[in-house]
Every structure is written in C-alpha cells, then in structure tokens.
Specification:
alpha+beta, 5-stranded mixed beta sheet, about 40% helix
Amino acid sequence: METALAGVRERFVAKLGSASDCTFDKLTQWLQAYVDTGGQLLGKCLVRAEALAPVLTKTDQKSGWLKATMKAPMKTIPQRWDAVEAALNKGQALVVEGRGTEISGDKSKFANSTGFHAFVLLQVIEDGDGKKWFIGFDPDVSATTETQKLWNNLIRAAFDTTDKDEDLGKWNEKVKDLKADKLYEILTTMVLGTTTSGFGPLVRGYAIDRTKELEGAWRG
C-alpha cells in the first residue's frame, strides 16, 4: 500500500513544479477554489478533471473515463470494476463524472445539488484489513470539513489575518495577487499536505460498492 501511494505522490510532485514558476492560473488549473469573483467557488469541474487526468497519468499510459471502462460488453458489474482497478493500477488516471449527490464530498457545494461534479481516480490500494480503496483527487476545496478548514487557514496565513471563516471572501478574491511562493504553498499544501510522504485532504480514499453501477456505488 505504501509503495502504491508513494507512486501516486510522485506523479503529483513531478507535475506541480516549483515555487518559482507557480502562477494564479496554475493554482486554478489544479484547485476548484474560492477565488472566483467575490471570493466564490470556481466552476468548470469537468473541464478541470479532463485536463488533469492526462497530467496525472503515467507516461507510458493514456488517461480515460471511468464510464467508458464500465461499459465493457459481456462483463458483470464486479468484473467491470476489476477492469477499472487494473487500468488504475497500470497508471491510468480516469475521469469520474456523476451527480453531486453521489460523488462529491459531504460538505461540498455540490453535495445537495441537482448538478454534476467531476474529479480524477488514480489508484486502488488494499489496507491491512484487506479492504480496497479507490484513491481519487477531487480539486473541490469545499468538499469536506477538513478541506474547508485547511483552505481557510492557508488564506489567513497568506494574508496575515485573523478574520473568521465567514469574513474571508475579501481575501479569497485577492489570492490572484499573491506572489508565486505563497501560491505554491497554498497549492502544494492542499494537494500534498505538510509532510514529505503524505497527501492533503483533496486526495481521498473512496470505498466503492463493486456490486453496483456508477450510480449508487460511491457511498457503499
């Protein structure tokens, strides 16, 4: 498990670059953050996921779509999930698109929405109890309590403010004006966390019910 996760981390590290070349555009390519007009959450989650999938795919593989892999003819649903696992563990990154109520984080802007959300699956790992987890990268900083808390704390640190969460909108709107090193710190901390071997809260494990199709499988 540790080896597989280390390999996933290496993919991020290789593509996130360095502090000297980090720009606001790069941050928005990776993060669906509260940096739109008025400090609102960015949109275009599908466009972002489609762009990130080939970036996060190993060089000898091609990215794809989860729904395409799940349409394999003459296979049972569990066999289709087996094919998904095999593709991911070869190094393919797969775009996941689904209803916000199905695939988004429980605190996400999309969790109670009739619209759709998208992110990228990267790997399948097996824990010490033999349970398999699908590792995904969801750029949505509104996704969970943890992602929201980390984002807000990073904004407070970047602007040296003690403002409460509900008052950070004016600072979110100014993220575009931050220098490269501050942008890089925000980006890498959200994705990779603060250790040299782990991840931030945007990289999460999903327990998939492999007896179900795409709809209904995520909260299994």
